[in-house]
Amino acid sequence: MKYALLAMAMGVAVAMAPPAHGSDAARWTPAQAKAWYARQRWPLGSNYLPADAINQLEMWQAGTFDPARIDLELGWAQQMGMNTMRVFLHDLLWQQDAAGFKQRIDAFLAIASKHGIKPIFVLFDSCWDPEPKLGPQRPPIPGVHNSGWVQGPGVAMTDASQYPRFEQYVKDIVGSFAKDPRILAWDVWNEPDNPGGGNYDPKEPKGKADYVAKLLPQVFAWARGVSPAQPLTSGLWHDEDWSDPSRLNPVERTQIEQSDVISFHNYGWPEEFAARVKQLSGYGRPLICTEYMARGAGSTIDGVLPLGKKLDVGMVNWGFVEGREQTNLPWDSWQHPYTLQPPTLWFHDLLHGDGTAYRQREIDILRSLSQAPRGVVPAEAASYPMQLSAAGR
After folding, report:
1. CB atoms near residue 16 (< 10 Å)
2. In this structure, are strands 287-291 and 314-317 parallel, antiparallel, or unpaired?
3. φ and ψ at 189, to 5 degrees?
4. The pTM is what?
């Protein structure tokens, strides 16, 4: 019995031990990932871009980086109970001025930490404009959703001579902040095999999915090679069954096989969200939904967020504050711009540019869930609290 207890104690110690560091650093075990997740607050936040930026380049470039605005907006997030933000970086920013870029990341982290927020940083992205350019960014297209967002690396992924630069970017950025407790996680590539969207089809790299399938494992390896204390992930996003690894495409298999914690995107009804969680639960790792909330598509704070809390899935909605990104407008605005009148419903985003709520009930739910114990959904967050007097019935 004594030896059995010793073995059990050793097993617990192994499960709780931090991941290996050094050149032989490997993917976290499920036990290590669960131990990490248990030490965190329930992840709750938004995909974040300041209201005065149209894309990640405008957010981070020296001439348009706006710490005062970021401080203001992250203060609003703190008041709502949020503790994370998913924030996109870009390889061109590092190529332009690596030292300055890292200084601005450090400044952002200082602001976020002041407000109790630990960001998830995204290294690469395959959505929207595949031809990113540094310098002043074009103004928003009137009435169009996310009209200025840029990919990274975009078309540069077709040029093998650029790969050493990608590697240096990943290793320098992740390595410089590898032990920084102010960072929650690294999302190495957002929707890697997304065909782009918008009206950018003629510019999209031919054979994009094949390029990404070869690059994504390398990006994981580059990031893991600098031994970050934070987990790595890349979110599944296709509308298909994720429970059977044999049915996944090469990109999805890499996402499942290389992510320390599994992340995914879902913009559907609550029953669809629940089905996704069930599919992914079989992999035995913590889950974070890094994109949700599309009101017109059935994904809402009221319907999906309490479910995420009950299932202990980290929840990061798309869109925080209305601004130059224009993600309060629906995806179909690329075909039908909302120039004559606004949409019936905001698609994404929680706040107007002055910090007032688009809908106060959503903010109340966020705050209530953030304050509740893990896995617990307070009654006032699960249904609308009725407080009618007898005379008012």
Report:
1. 14
2. parallel
3. -160, 120
4. 0.93
DSSP per residue, 310-360: HTT-EEEES--B-STT-TTS-GGGGTS---SS--SS--S-SB-TTS-BS-H
Closest CA to 191 of 118, 260, 128, 241: 128
CATH 3.20.20.80 fits 26-382, yes or no: yes
d(CA 348, CA 76): 17
CA dist 139 and 124 (Å) reads 23
The pairing of beta strand 262-265 with beta strand 232-233? unpaired
Q: How far apart (Å, rounded) are the C-alpha atoms in residues 31 and 42?
A: 18
- Cα separation of 318 and 252, whole Å? 21
End-to-end distance of the chain based on CA atoms, in angstroms?
A: 66
Q: Alpha carbon of 159 to those of 90, 94, 200, 215: distances in Å?
A: 17, 18, 19, 12
Residue-range domain boundaries for the chain: 26-382
Assigned token pair, 332: 């179909």
Across the chain, where does the E strand assignment appear? 44-47, 84-88, 120-125, 185-190, 232-233, 262-265, 287-291, 314-317
In 35-126, DSSP assigns E strands to 44-47, 84-88, 120-125
Structural tokens at position 155: 């078309």
CB 234 within 8 A of CB 192: yes
**Token pair 């200082």 is at which residue?**
110
Q: How many other CB atoms sit within 10 Å of the CB of residue 339? A: 11
CA atoms within 13 A on the CB side of 371: 13
Short-list 243, 269, 267, CA closest to 256: 243
Segment 13-72, tens digit of pLDDT: 333 344 443 345 799 999 999 999 999 999 999 999 999 999 999 999 999 999 999 999
Distance CA 346, CA 296 (A): 8
pLDDT digits (tens, 9 = 90+) for 109-135: 999 999 999 999 999 999 999 999 999
